[in-house]
């Protein structure tokens, strides 16, 4: 990571690094862990996207490079299934972050099971479940959900 060098990561490099690493952490097939840099580079090439190397991805992820080309950013956005504006627009990045959080939650089999069971419950029944969830959150000392 960047802390291995003596120079701090620039704010631009940090933002890019954090956003790219979040995609690596969350966007991958559900039956396995995150892609490696080499896998992403190979899969991007196989899909006809802009060519990047695993080393270049590592540099972006660690903040050693902070000025990728628009073509590279567009290709990475396409690969990970996010809008290209994710890299530049903080509102788009926040909306995408919420969608990534939902994807992450849906990988939890218990959460998925609850959602599937709720799919045919009435609106009043769903409200009752939300009340129960709020009660459990309060009991566990968690803040109220939004």
Automatic annotation (TrEMBL):
Domain HTH cro/C1-type stretches: 52-87
Gene Ontology MF term list: DNA binding
Record protein name field: XRE family transcriptional regulator
The species this protein was found in: Streptomyces olivochromogenes
High-level lineage: Bacteria, Bacillati, Actinomycetota, Actinomycetes, Kitasatosporales
């Amino acid at each position: 990571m960047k802390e291995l060098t003596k120079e701090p990561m620039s704010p631009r490099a940090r933002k890019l690094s954090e956003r790219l690493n979040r995609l690596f952490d969350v966007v991958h097939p559900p039956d396995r862990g995150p892609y490696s840099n080499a896998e992403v580079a190979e899969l991007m090439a196989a899909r006809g996207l802009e060519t990047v190397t695993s080393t270049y991805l590592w540099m972006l992820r660690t903040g050693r490079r902070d000025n990728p080309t628009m073509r590279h950013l567009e290709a990475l956005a396409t690969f990970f299934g996010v809008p290209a504006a994710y890299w530049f627009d903080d509102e788009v990045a926040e909306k995408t972050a919420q969608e990534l959080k939902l994807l992450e939650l849906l990988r939890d089999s218990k959460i998925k099971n609850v959602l599937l069971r709720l799919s045919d419950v009435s609106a009043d029944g769903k409200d009752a479940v939300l009340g129960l969830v709020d009660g459990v959150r309060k009991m566990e000392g968690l803040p109220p959900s939004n």
